[in-house]
Amino acid sequence: MTQSEPRALQLNEKGQLKHFLSLEGLDKTILTEILDLAESFLNMGEQSVKKVPLLRGKTVVNLFFENSTRTRTTFELAAKRLSADVINLNIETSATSKGESLLDTLQNLEAMQSDMFVVRHGDSGAAHFIAEHCTPNVAIINAGDGRHAHPTQAMLDMLTIRRHKGGFEGLKVAIVGDILHSRVARSQIHALTTLGVEEIRLVGPKTLVPNYFSETGAVICHELQAGLQDVDVIVMLRLQKERMHGALLPSESEFYRLYGLTMESMSWAKPDVVVMHPGPINRGVEISSEVADGEHSVILNQVTNGIAVRMAVMSMAMSGQVQSQESERSMASDTMVGEKV
Ligand code: NCD
To answer: Please, what are the domains in the chain?
Structure first.
């Protein structure tokens, strides 16, 4: 199967977002629009009435084929704050595990007149595949596919960086740990590059940070001190053992000794460094409790920002679908007028 180019699939004829599958091909204008809109939703979370009617009457299905707590819950909250009706599909008990194909499941959900699917799947390319095969006017949002992409996570990380650092220009960002298996790192590299940071460093052992990642334009560091020297932002990643085949590490304690973020290793970074982690965190494996709970950590702010970013992406994609429908309708009526004349 040949997959269509991400940009073409994600944008409507006016260049507006209609699906959100990956950050590849999305330019700085769209990424900034997402951040600006998310920023406006952030204030809403503090008000007593936390709802806007942007998705009223729409049905959002959370289609999670892989475990998740944070991502699924924040997508659900985001949809509810946009006034949508939300269904969480428990894939363990769904028909898919009874042998129904992904497309059959999808067609059944479409027959229930769903307007948006939020998809998490263990296979890279799953959300893209669904976007290519679903009926027109249904928006697909990628909530993580294999090790390929996790675009809403990367955008909530960008919002967190922008709010703490005021922008992206001149920033040095280190992403540390299991880059090889990380969809978060891949999406972050796209976002940070598009938004124009000065330097991205990928830090970890050779087995988890292969040299071919330098093709992304990032600097590869196999030594933690060099990787953290003078950085403004540190992103720590978990060892994603469920995606590892074979022994890529001597042991967790050896990994912590060489690459763990502790008060000591954090001191190599700038004094006002911020520490991020997409979660789930493993204390004493990639990060010490002192750092995770310390004053440089913005890990819980990331979770809060996730709701606002997901609201922004969902409302933009729904509006892009509606605009697309309208322009199709007006093209059809132009043709009919033309035929009469
Ligand atoms: C990440 C994911 O699922 O890719 N977590 C998340 O979305 N909060 C990172 C991870 O699992 O390590």
So the answer is: 28-149+303-322 (3.40.50.1370), 151-298 (3.40.50.1370)
